[in-house]
Amino acid sequence: MYDVIIIGAGVSGCAVARELARLELKTAVLEAAPDVCEGTSKANSGIVHGGYDAKPGTLKAKLNVEGSRRMEALSRELGFPYKKNGSLVLCFDEKDTGRLEALKRNGETNGVEGLRILGRQELLGLEPQVGDKAYAALYAPSGAIVCPFGLTIALAENAAENGVAFFFSRKVASVTKTENGYLVHTREQDYETRLVVNAAGVHGDEIHNMVSQYKMKITPRKGEYLLYDKAAGNLVRHTLFQLPTALGKGVLVTPTVHGNLLTGPTAMDIEDKEGTETSLEGMGQVQEKAALSVEGIPGRAVITSFAGLRAHISTPPYGAEEGWVEDFVIQEVKDAPGFIDVAGMESPGLSCAPATGTYVAHMVKKLLSPGQKKDFVPERKGIPNMALASWEERQELIKKNPAYGNVICRCEMVTEGEILDAIHRPLGATTTDGIKRRTRAGMGRCQSGFCNPKVVEILARELGRDESGITKAGEDSWYLLSQEEGGEEQK
């Protein structure tokens, strides 16, 4: 019997788990995938938004500004990459400067500090490569970039180290009300709990609809991205947005915390909740729109494309009347006491995560009245990064473990020692994608073309498996397949 079960190990679910780990509660996280950060949290812009565009008075506005303010200190506490690089919202027509002014007033109402309108010359001083048509911009110095994998994994590891149980490959089939709470049924086993937190991303409506007569519908909004080699990483210093539209913030151009350049996303509502394929049309749109913001983006420097799905609530929750403002849905379900939705966490959900965790934890405290843990450990030490370490730090690590001197991924200079750490730390990696997100092995120019066979070999050795049992991302994503030939299985 658990006090709280969180469904979903994305950034919101893991942020809630970490905050609940501060309390005297028996908490568990159920995740359908074989690892944390397998849904929306793994495929997004990695932006910490300033909070100037959310409608004042909404949860989006409140949690965005609070989450943005807390992210830098959290990055030091939990050891994940973060950089406050500032953001610019570009205006391409003099007649639209009024919209920039309105955006500035909106941000100031939300509590965003330091917002300024820049003219063309001042804009060029900050970003010399900005497009010819960029007439003015809104500057938000509080804008930042973060590693979305690093943030989510750090939250999850710290939660686990403080007693939260994580169960992977546990897809929820049903949730039923019981006398003492809820029974959460998965194919592998059932879990009893006093309280449920639904943080299932694009599948959040399915989980909600298992317990409530007030139906919710989430429409996946697909966004396609292009990632560029580090040779293009210094093309811009700030995150460049375009004036937002009804479908979102438009195509952005931004450096990443790891030194790459990123452009995207598109915005297309689809029905397939697993529809993360990219398209020639989508990549063409990204290139065309990004060129409006920045001149000379080198098309030949693209090393990969990817798509993510945002959980857009397409029908008002709980039969709300007309005039409902689109917002996150974070509340106890009207006809299901003890069932809390954390739904519709599209942009700026990543930016909000630290504040979302605290917000939901307060709701849980009101419902369960738990005590505060006295032995909660807030710090977490990340995996050593040999590519960024000093000569002295490298030598010290190699003395302790020679595996830190064996380079496996040449593009990103990732060593065997880092991969071993990724496997054996709390919630360690069991797939090559898990290794990639924790160490960046396979994220470089060759996109794992050289290092992947060695990573598979290390995973098999350390996990005590045959190499044919190692997958990219669980389920049917094997690298080595078996077939029967002449009555014998051949591998």
Q: How would you sum up this structure, described in words?
A:
By secondary structure, the chain is of the alpha+beta class. Helices cover 29% and strands 23% of the residues. The chain is built from twelve helices and 24 strands. It has helices spanning 11-20, 59-78, 97-110, 120-126, 148-161, 204-209, 280-293, 349-368, 391-400, 416-424, 432-439, 452-463, and strands at 2-7, 27-30, 47-48, 82-83, 87-91, 116-119, 136-140, 144-146, 165-167, 172-177, 182-186, 190-198, 218-228, 239-242, 252-255, 261-264, 268-269, 302-313, 329-332, 339-343, 407-409, 414-415, 483-485, 488-490. Strands 1, 2, 9, 10, 11, 12, 19 and 20 form an eight-stranded mixed β-sheet that branches. Strands 13, 15, 16, 17 and 18 form a five-stranded antiparallel β-sheet that branches. A four-stranded mixed β-sheet has the order 6-7-5-14. A hairpin with a 6-residue loop joins strand 19 and strand 20 (339-343). Helix 1 (11-20) runs parallel beside helix 5 (148-161). The radius of gyration is 23 Å and the shape is globular. The model has no long low-confidence stretch (mean pLDDT 94).
